[in-house]
């Protein structure tokens, strides 16, 4: 049937609504029945905000798009609704009602009864008013705990589904290459294996709840020059293949992610939104991805306005569609009238529209949006009195006790104890000086994509929607007998020195001084961390270092506590602070976690997902560097970090011993198994994080000095020991060779069992034998760990 001819009232018309028919047949029938305008309408979204009164959503007006006329758009259908909950503060139950009413209108207005797919942000929890604010992804990385992150992802997904959302724009799988980049807080760390395993666990959690997980940003965003947002990326094909791509590969293969979002940046002159080799050749043809590729917000228009590779909206639409972007977000700009007109007059093949449409409709069919019994009303509003919207207020709780308990678990596991001269845990101090700009600031625990920092700041009269106890509050509960005196000292970035003298006086009169420093999350320069909040150097913002140095000059022991979105050089504090506690925006339960670590109620088990620099100007530098990237005699700049990737202390002591290996040689398609004993020789229960690194001393192309290929958490009671076994397949030693193929080369390998990238505990050398072997995306990705108890001596 011609796609531009109206459908006659025949029995075949309803084939797409029949769930007993294959999805392929349903989608084919629907595409065959659609006009061109009905097709393109499924390929874009409209940015809306749910109604606080429970009425239909209202189009969101913003400075990057023209006003949207829903009445004009809806008769041909609508592909997506953009951020109904993440645009304005709205009670969750009233927002769910608003979305349901809008979906009813959308389905009733178009010929085929197709509702929109609703998406929202979920970077550190569902970005909705009143929803749990979990720790940011950089804290997920600090846990080295995929199981807990998977549970968190499932909880977030359940909350999103409870109010009618289908797709979540997370996780961020960008690997940190330069910590000056403002979006470091959104990443999981500087190592691709850590990013891949933690990110995949989050995807598995979201997808288990029925939410379409969206991997972003594909690919190269985090490698922008000088850490500047949207700056060009200068990575070569080997760095791209071996560092930036593996997390996406893992999350698609093992996580089952059903959507991918392009990166804004260009790599060597090719914007990701225009890169057919990337979005179609690699992602689909090689990796077999069959989900949807959605545009990062305004990315298709940026091909004209920022990248300058399209002369008009038609050129931008055709380029993106040909590359493989299926859905334009957040609004209709290029995939509406410009695309329709260009297809109608033959400038863009209709086959490209049909290709994208097939992916979009397949996803809608699998979500049940084409089924005859589809109901826009979520189960949480079932049997509710919808005639009285005001009575619904508070009916849906997105921040219940189970969520808060899980948020606290993640936060506790993510706190990293960087240094400790024995002052921690605090032994019932009588007088505590609580100092610094984040000491008594409720939002200091939140990242830039939390609802209060992302949306709430634009609505100052609206309550936060969640409880955010300050560190002052939680310390008072943790140390009820202590006198706690608070002095701000200085602001986050105002450079104000006027309060430093008062802070010093308060510290002089205390038994211990807790100085709480770090960031304020924001967007596009409104914060010191977050999207568009890049740093020129990794020095603490404002006058915070001045405050810290002043306090270090005193006799009172100083414990430095960081609530930040990136690592910072801490100057004298590295050597002179009595202890340093690092936390990366730990979410609504974060101050409870920090207070617990300070008191000893929580034995810290967090490990650094990013290196902490020794000097503020040594970027870009990560542990994952080749020999020339590390300190040498031919440069006066020493990038050696103050605290290395994977570092973290405990209040107990772990001993590692008795390493054995089953074979000294293994073929390039084989494996070898190591075994060793980890014992808690201290006086309290704790968790050791065993990290497995590979060092390849001689390879056909330059390799990192070492790279993480596995890890596991080992929980031990005092005196308890476990025999840890790890089987290492030769595949994990693969890398991209001279001709661009991924290979496993024969030769010697050094296997390092370590407590951090700078703290090797046990080392063994093995040799891979046989011929060089080519591998691909089906290779084995993991070393496998097992644990068994060891009898007490």
TrEMBL record:
Protein's name in the database: Glycoside hydrolase family 3 C-terminal domain-containing protein
Lineage, top ranks: Bacteria, Bacillati, Actinomycetota, Actinomycetes, Kitasatosporales
SUPFAM superfamilies: (Trans)glycosidases (SSF51445), Beta-D-glucan exohydrolase, C-terminal domain (SSF52279)
DNA damage keyword on record: no
GO MF annotation, one: hydrolase activity, hydrolyzing O-glycosyl compounds
Domain Fibronectin type III-like: 688-757
One Pfam family from the record: Glyco_hydro_3
Family membership: Belongs to the glycosyl hydrolase 3 family.
SMART domains given in the database record: Fn3_like (SM01217)
Secretion signal, residue range per the UniProt entry: none
Keywords from the UniProt entry: Hydrolase
GO BP annotation list: carbohydrate metabolic process
